[in-house]
Amino acid sequence: xxxxxxxxxxFPILRVKINGKRLVYLDNAATSQKPKQVIQKLVEYYECFxxxxxxxxxxxxxxxxxxxxxxxxEVAKFINAKEEEIIFVKNCTEGLNLAAYTLAREIxxxxxxxxxxxxxxxxxxxxxxxIRKRMEFRVADINEDFTLNYEDLYSKINKxxxxxxxxxxxxxxxxxxxxxxxxxxxxxxxxxxxxxxxxPHLKINxxxxxxxxxxxxxxxxxxxxxxxxLYVRKDVAERLNPFLYGGEMIKEVYITxxxxxxxxxxYEAGTPNIADVVAFGEAIRYLRRVGMNKVRAxxxxxxxxxxxELKNIRGLKLYGPTKxxxxxxxxxxxxxxxxxxxxxxILDSEGIAVRSGHGCAMPLMRRLGVNSVARASFYIYxxxxxxxxxxxxxxxxxRVFKVD
Length: 404
Ligand SMILES: Cc1ncc(COP(=O)(O)O)c(C=O)c1O
Hints:
With 404 residues, this protein is of the alpha/beta class. It is 39% helix and 17% strand. Pyridoxal-5'-phosphate binds next to helix 4.
């Protein structure tokens, strides 16, 4: 069990009043709030050891480098990777694009397989690659219960499949995909996983999952904005050529040729976002102290309660699996006759922050037959009281719009 009092005290923003009401922050799938330990680390970086990394031999430069590389170690341990397999990028989107551009140099024909539940950032890069190379873009469907249709997915994978690009957890449905199983069925294709929604909630072991690329963002897991991770399996990272050129990623430069730096620096051109990477290291330490098992147990507890409550609201349509084991605590819904922006607006007047709109998943919206959804997404500082506030808020929305 999580020590909720202690956790809530770690997040200063939870004391902020919104429209005179207690903040009920349920937009964690968009970005999480930050604990004071992470905020303090950012301040400490700028006050005590701000310098560029990997180049200056002065003490401050070495301190900054040490802290930056400490964060890489933390991330590597967090997903059971080697340090040289961790590439720091701007966000999950940049990580997925880096994978797509890097692979684009090696792939010439065939097909790329993805799913209809992808966020645009794991859909558009592959779609565009297929358009540029005249390759086939294959999109696997979902089942009626909002889980991935594995049968359809496997029927789309064949000898000509070059890349399988799949999300670990859907940012709209909350569905968890069995990445390990897909990896086994994937044959020789490169397997790229979008872990933006899973890394904050589930224990990830890249070796067990056996994936080639895996991307996620720091800001959805207590870290600052502006930092993401692209894991690339060592043999793949060694074989492929870098996408961005410039400082740091070279070993030697001649007029006619350049030799690449060793991993992971080969893929990290230019001065990185040092302060935020260092603070991300603190965010990972925070998650490790809490324990990913406890994070998941809390998520399951909230999911069970939320599913029970939401089911009882007349006119509410939930888009996501009804079995706790198949999902995380992301609840997308619509209320009959009310636009999702109106739902979000009225909830906001009660201090409740939820997302509304297409959720960066337009192909999925079309598949669901809607233009938009309202989405409430929970994290470890959300408790039963927050769920209760959401349910009362939804009842108010219905009263305001006179929907029974
Ligand atoms: C499943 C999924 N993939 C990718 C992203 C993109 O993350 P970012 O905007 O941090 O790059 C998101 C963000 O919401 C997401 O939910």
